[in-house]
C-alpha cells in the first residue's frame, strides 16, 4: 500500500522511540551492568519476535542458512553492547551522529562480501560522511573521548549485520530472521548473566522493561513504515533522530552539543542526502527501457 505520508510519520515516531530508548539506556548504565541492560532488552525482543512468528504460516522458524543467521544475530548483539557501553561516557547527540557512519561501512563491506561495485558518487558521499565523523570525534584534541571508538565498533557490527541481511533476503523469511536474531542475542546474554548481574531496584526494573518494550516497538514501526513508502523516500527522515537525541540529551542530562558536534552532524547528514539523491537518479535510469540492468541496492540506514 503506497502511502508516503504515513510512512514518513511512522519514521518520525520510530526515530523518537529509538532516541528515547537510548536515553533510557544511558541513564541505566550508571546503575546496572551493560550486559544486564541488553539482556532484558533481548528477552522482550524474543517475546515480540515469537508473537509475530505465531501469526506466520508453517515453517516460521525454519532457515536454510543457520550459520549466517547466527552471525547476523551476533553482529546485532555486539552492535547493541558497544553502543550502550559508549552511552555511559558520550552525550546522546555525539553518539547518534557518529553512528550514522554505518552506511559508509556497509558499502565498504558489501564489496568483499557481496561483490558489489561501489560507484564514485557513493565513495564521495561516504568519504564526506567520514570527514563529518572526524569533526565530531576530533581525534588528537582534548575533546576526543576514547568511547567514540565504541560507537565506530558498534557501527561496524551493524554494517556487518546489514550486509548479511542482504545475503539472507530471499533465502529465509523476514520473520524467521527476526526470531533467530533475537534468540541468538538472548541466549548469549543469558549465559553471561550469572557472571555480571546486579539486582535492580523496582524503579530500575520498570525502566528496563520500558526500554525493551519501546525498542521492540520502534523496530516494528520501522518495518511498518517501509510497507507504506520506499526506502529512498524514508531514509532522509531517519536523520531526525539527531534532533531527538539532542533534545533528550539536553532535557534529561543537561548536555548541550558544541559547535563542532553540530557542524560534523551537518556534514554527515549532507553526505547521506547526497548519496541518496544519486541512488535515486541511478534507479530512474535503470528503469528506462534502454537500461535493463537491475538498480543498485539502497544504502543502509542505521538505527542508533
List the helices and strands and how they pair.
Blueprint: H1 4-28, H2 34-54, H3 66-87, H4 92-99, H5 102-114, H6 120-137, H7 147-168, H8 174-192, H9 202-228, H10 231-234, H11 240-253, H12 259-286
Helix pairs in contact: 1-9, 1-11, 2-3, 2-8, 2-9, 3-7, 3-8, 4-7, 4-11, 4-12, 5-6, 5-7, 6-12
Task: Offer a quick outline of the entry.
The protein is mainly alpha-helical and about 300 residues long. The protein contains 12 helices and no strands.
Characterization of the model:
The chain is an all-alpha fold and about 300 residues long. The chain has one domain (about 5-285). It contains twelve helices and no strands. It has helices at about 5-30, 35-55, 65-85, 90-100, 100-115, 120-135, 145-170, 175-190, 200-230, 230-235, 240-255, 260-285.
- Indicate the overall shape: globular
Which regions contain 5 or more consecutive residues with pLDDT less than 50? 293-304
Largest sheet data: none
Whole-angstrom Rg:
19 Å
Order of helices and strands: HHHHHHHHHHHH
Kindly state the number of beta strands: 0
Helix content: over 70%
Structural class: mainly alpha
Q: What is the terminal separation in angstroms?
A: 27 Å
Report strand %.
Answer: under 5%
DSSP summary: helix tally: 12
What is the arithmetic mean of pLDDT? 86
What is the total number of structural domains?
A: 1
Amino acid at each position: 500500500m503506497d502511502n508516503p505520508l504515513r510512512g514518513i510519520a511512522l519514521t518520525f515516531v520510530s526515530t523518537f522511540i529509538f532516541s528515547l530508548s537510548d536515553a533510557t539506556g544511558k541513564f541505566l548504565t550508571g546503575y546496572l551492568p551493560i550486559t544486564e541492560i541488553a539482556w532484558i532488552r533481548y528477552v522482550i525482543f524474543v517475546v515480540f519476535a515469537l508473537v509475530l512468528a505465531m501469526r506466520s504460516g508453517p515453517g516460521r522458524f525454519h532457515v536454510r542458512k543457520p550459520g549466517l543467521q547466527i552471525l547476523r544475530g551476533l553482529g546485532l548483539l555486539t552492535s547493541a553492547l558497544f553502543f550502550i557501553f559508549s552511552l555511559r561516557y558520550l552525550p546522546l547527540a555525539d553518539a547518534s551522529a557518529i553512528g550514522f557512519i554505518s552506511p559508509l561501512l556497509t558499502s565498504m563491506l558489501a564489496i568483499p562480501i557481496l561483490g558489489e561495485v561501489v560507484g564514485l558518487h557513493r565513495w564521495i558521499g561516504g568519504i564526506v560522511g567520514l570527514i563529518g565523523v572526524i569533526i565530531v570525534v576530533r581525534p588528537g584534541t582534548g575533546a576526543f573521548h576514547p568511547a567514540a571508538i565504541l560507537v565506530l565498533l558498534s557501527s561496524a557490527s551493524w554494517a556487518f549485520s546489514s550486509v548479511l541481511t542482504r545475503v539472507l533476503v530471499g533465502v529465509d523469511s523476514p520473520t524467521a530472521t527476526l526470531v533467530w536474531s533475537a534468540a541468538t542475542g538472548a541466549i548469549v546474554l543469558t549465559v553471561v548473566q550469572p557472571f555480571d548481574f546486579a539486582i535492580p531496584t523496582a524503579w530500575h526494573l520498570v525502566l528496563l522493561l520500558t526500554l525493551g518494550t519501546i525498542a521492540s516497538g520502534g523496530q516494528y514501526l520501522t518495518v511498518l513504515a517501509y510497507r507504506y513508502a520506499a526506502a529512498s523516500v524514508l531514509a532522509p527522515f531517519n536523520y531526525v533522530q539527531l534532533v531527538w537525541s539532542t533534545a533528550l540529551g539536553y532535557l534529561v542530562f543537561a548536555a548541550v552539543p558544541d559547535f563542532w558536534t553540530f557542524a560534523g552532524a551537518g556534514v554527515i547528514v549532507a553526505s547521506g542526502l547526497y548519496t541518496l539523491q544519486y541512488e535515486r537518479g541511478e534507479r530512474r535510469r535503470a528503469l528506462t527501457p534502454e537500461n535493463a540492468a537491475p538498480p543498485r541496492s539502497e544504502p543502509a540506514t542505521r538505527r542508533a
